[in-house]
Specification:
Strand content: 15-25%
Shape: elongated
Number of helices: 7
Largest sheet: 7 strands, mixed
Number of strands: 13
Order of helices and strands: EEEEHEEHEEEEEHEEHHHH
Distance between the termini: 61 Å
């Protein structure tokens, strides 16, 4: 049995958190009809989502919008074949470039867009805005009528996951979400957070970058990787933020990515060159 949960954020907005990677889906209700943002990370979790929404609550999923086309957010797509699917135009780039692709979850979106589109759904206006960061197709779903924004994977709780992303692009994406001014941020994983999570994620990214750059500048190449691999998450988190187990796990993955892909090496080289000029 999956360890899963759902939470009613408003009478017409329900957040679902699955067991697989604590992936999140958000349902916006218009009477008996549902617009679903993302659809969890495993077949088991997606079946649970459909059972709760369609069997227990008697709803019908009419629209399925993707914050980004990575498999750990797409498990429900095959389960709602009649739903209209929406994604950013670069969805295939993301799907093909991910580390753990599950082709069975893929559905060609019926609607694609470039910079922005607005969907009126029940009492709400959902503003789908292209906000590349973690992936090139990333979409932030800003819902001013519910005072929330769905961030996708541009944050991971109070941290970020670098993977193959450009950290500069990711930082800018978080900054755009801050400009929306919403009090609630629904993450791609873990659940919902207060707006301060965006500042916390930026703080983490900046501290991680500064720490790695300092180590690269001060240590010999033969030993720098082992020091990067031992960076503690506590040294990167914002004041008074205690790391959750999920954040600890993905911090370790960040350290692996930084070593494997030489992340922040260019920034270190540019900083050194600037100091000589």
């Amino acid at each position: 049995m999956s360890v899963v949960r759902f939470e009613e954020l408003r009478p017409d907005v329900i957040m679902f958190v699955g067991e697989q990677r604590e992936s999140v889906a958000t349902a916006f209700l218009d009477g008996e009809d549902v617009l679903l943002v993302d659809s969890l990370g495993s077949t088991e979790d997606a079946h649970w989502l459909r059972r709760v929404l369609c069997e227990d609550m008697g709803k019908t999923v009419r629209v399925l919008a993707a914050t980004h086309f990575m498999s750990d957010h797409m498990a429900g797509m095959p389960l709602f074949p009649e739903a209209l699917t929406i994604a950013h135009r670069h969805h295939r780039h993301t799907f093909l470039s991910q580390n753990q692709r599950i082709d069975a979850f893929y559905r060609e979106p019926k609607v694609v867009f470039d910079s922005a589109m607005t969907v009126r759904w029940g009492q709400h206006e959902l503003r789908l805005l292209h906000n590349p960061g973690k992936t090139m197709d990333h979409v932030s779903v800003d819902v001013p009528t519910a005072d929330l924004v769905c961030s996708g994977d541009n944050i991971v709780g109070n941290t970020v996951y670098l993977s193959k992303a450009d950290p500069v692009l990711m930082r800018a994406a978080i900054g755009r979400m801050r400009q929306f001014g919403r009090s609630t941020v629904i993450g791609g994983h873990m659940g919902r957070f207060a707006a301060s999570v965006l500042d916390n994620a930026t703080h983490y990214l900046d501290q991680l970058k500064n720490t790695v750059m300092r180590l690269r500048a001060e240590l010999a190449p033969q030993v720098v990787d082992e020091h990067i691999a031992s960076i503690r998450i506590e040294t990167c988190l914002a004041p008074n933020v205690q790391p959750m187990a999920f954040e600890r796990e993905w911090h370790q993955r960040n350290l692996e990515v930084i070593v494997e892909q030489s992340v922040f090496a260019l920034d270190t080289a540019l900083a050194a060159r600037g100091s000589r000029e």
